[in-house]
Amino acid sequence: MITRRGVLAGGAALTVLGAPRPSLATTPGRLITQEASRQIVPTDYPETRLWRYALDGRTGPATGPTIRARQGDTLSLRLENGLARPTTVHWHGIRIDNAMDGVPGVTQSPVGPSETFDYVFDLPDAGTYWYHSHVDSVEQVARGLHGPLIVDEAEAPDVDDDLVLVLDDWRLDAGAQITDDFENRHDRSHAGRLGNVVTTNGDMDWRQSVTAGARLRLRLINVANARVFDLALAGVTGWIVATDGMPLAAPRVIEGPFALGPAQRLDLIVDIAGEVGDEVGLVELIRGEAYSQATFVVENGGSARTAAPLPLPPNPTYGVADATNARKIEIVMQGGAMRGLPEVMSGGVIRDGRSLMMEGLFWALSGQAGRPDTPLAEIAQGETVAIDFVNETAFPHAMHLHGHHFHEVAPDGSLGDFRDTTLVQPGQRVSTLFVAHNPGDWLLHCHMLAHHAAGMGTWIRVA
Ligand code: C2O
Ligand code: CU
Question: Domain Plastocyanin-like, which positions (predicted)?
Fold first, then answer.
């Protein structure tokens, strides 16, 4: 196995790429899935074979291209499946028309090899979103079927540059190839499929030159299968201005480390300080050591802004989330290594946990392993819902609800960040509140993708 530390310690030259430049793609496009290969690890290793999206022939630095549109636009894309496997596209975090949500067996049939599917949907919200395969996602996302979806505000904030930073980890073998152990029982029952090569925009040593004093918008997207990035700023000051695409009412100063769970996004605004030649930026913290996640090399003096950034303009709201009349749902996360699975429902019958684990199902949500035939809850459109996530397992989980964002609720009842994915630590209870405004059948699952595959998924119906 290649480790990042091992490769870096080996002193091999690292591939340095420019940052991807966003470009506009608002007209109907051809979104093709295809096999490709790319240099992920240093050039004394072979290129890594991967799967990726291409939009009208354009790809991203490693995998999918950035799809960029304006708030209020209608996105119209024809998926053409160039792979030998069925696939779909899920538009993660978009408060989308249910029929376009890309969930096989729920909102559409899988798109077979050489088949097509037309995705046409409105973009009500500005912000940082992403798209990825929702078929065999442990494998298809690990192989590279994902990309950023950026929806621009009518009026852009005052920054010198706007950069998309796709954070990923890859599990590569000694020949720099993606390991095909997608059914790995240890991953499924423990922390998910963690990688051994960590990248930003497909690069192990992503860096870019900036002017001292520059103010940058950084759009962080965690596309990893299971990795929780513990991040910190190094030599820059910054604010969080949006969580999972949704603007904060007031920018929040970043004072210490911050976590980015699988599928989560953060929009930061950072001010570059330092002398010419300094290297500053974003680091990942691993056991007390800081590893560069994005490096900015300071060039030329410039004058810094003195005022804090303004909040991003708010996205539309759909009704008021009022806790007093909320429908209460408790979702207890159960199972996994070190806890084991009790007797639960699976496939419509009561099963004992041991036999389910033999079959590769290790997790349950409130006594149900795997997606049930009937929804966890049927909710009237416009009803306020309070979901409490209770983590009785020994691992963190990144719980994602399709089609909606929810507030994380503070212990004093105040409404916190508005997210589509919340990270729930072992032993923790996370309370959420939202208005179920979007009709349809919506998945609710752990975005540690091996956990979802191993039983940690359910759904709600809003009608
Ligand atoms: Cu980002 Cu159900 O997924
Ligand atoms: Cu999980």
Answer: 62-154, 162-273, 362-462
pLDDT (tens digit per residue) in 354-364? 999 999 999 99
**Which residue is it, tokens 């920054």?**
159
Q: What angle do CA 341, 425, 137 make, to 5 degrees?
A: 70
Tell how far the Cα of 353 is from the centroid of ligand 2, in angstroms.
Answer: 17
Neighbours of ion ligand 2 (CB under 5 A): 397, 446, 448, 451
Residue 90 Cβ < 6 Å to ligand 1: yes
- Condensed to tens digits (0 to 9), the pLDDT of residues 395-434 reads 999 999 999 999 999 999 999 999 999 999 999 999 999 9
pLDDT in tens, 70-88: 999 999 999 999 999 999 9
Cα 301 to ligand 2 centroid, rounded to whole Å: 46
Residue bearing the CA closest to ligand 1, atom 3 = 92
pTM for this prediction? 0.94
Distance, CA 447 to ligand 2 centroid (Å)? 6
Domains and CATH numbers, the chain: 4-152 (2.60.40.420), 161-299 (2.60.40.420), 323-462 (2.60.40.420)
Over residues 136-144, the mean pLDDT reads 98
